[in-house]
Amino acid sequence: MQTVKISTSSKDYPVFIGSGAIHQLNKFLLTDMPGITNISIIVDTAVADLYLEHFQSALSGFELSVCKVPSGEQAKTFDVYYEVMSFLLAEKLDRKSLILALGGGAIGDLAGFVAATYMRGIRFIQVPTTILAHDSAVGGKVAINHPKGKNMIGAFHQPEAVFYDLEFLASLPLKEKRSGFAEVIKHGLIHDILFYAHLRDRLHSLTDLSTADLEAFLQRGIEIKGEFVSVDETEQGIRAYLNFGHTLGHAIEAEMGYGGWTHGESVAVGMIFALYLSQRKLDLSFNIDDFKKWLTLLGYETTIPKNVDHKNLLERMKQDKKSIGQKVNFILLKEIGNPEIHEVSDEEILEELARF
Questions:
Q1: Which of 155, 242, 346, 356 has the most CB atoms at less than 10 Å from its CB?
Q2: Is 197 marked as binding a ligand?
Q3: Structural domain boundaries of the chain?
């Protein structure tokens, strides 16, 4: 069992990583969170079928209510948000109550936003069940989607703790593993060239990944995320670097219809696009063709879907949260581990999309 400490201006909290991590949760609630009145689990239907009974058994001595919601991005809608709020009110949760977010990144986003806004804010704990959620469960960004953009309605609300039980990852389909590892790769590219080199050396297949490698990769990814969050909790500056690949990635994800392409698949293409821009604008020295071959080996798409209109992508990017005054900002790399924010004109984007 590994523990990573996340320190922010509003709260410090632990991230417990390892097989069987949820068995530490009962003790944590008793010793670190006395006075809890009610506990409600927010879980998607797929995870509930697989793990809810096992999870509840790890919480002996607590009365639990369970709110089941749709899986994936379908959970992050106004309607589902309203239904969850109504459920919590019916269960009489108060300001001393606790929400447990059991599921992938979408459930963590939804449950965290519910916790941030229910009675102006109550406590919650993240219990991620996907690789992708190693990124989203840490840092306090919580949100739901709007048809015009992903995570457009949200808040910063840090959890009390994160319990990352690697046993939950055993049932992940390969597509979801791939989605999650795009964020691991991103962390290496923006912050740690040695970690990126280690990934290239060790990661040749997502089907034969050892438990030891998985734990080490996820731990380092969480540590890197924590370093950015500790300096810039509310994304006024360098935390935006964590959005490398996400400007185009979010646009692709939205254009394909949430669930058409996974988040990680979209971000992988977004990273390649940002690397090309980095070469043209910052003279980045990096073998992009070799990077694309590696991603292909791991099963990623490396080109924009053919049925997606470039002008539509541009309009999506203009709605991105990093854009200011309808000017699109990209996270680019001066070198591996050295990101910068750059405004890119509409003409440059469309030219690069045409070349891409």
A1: 242
A2: no
A3: 2-171, 174-355
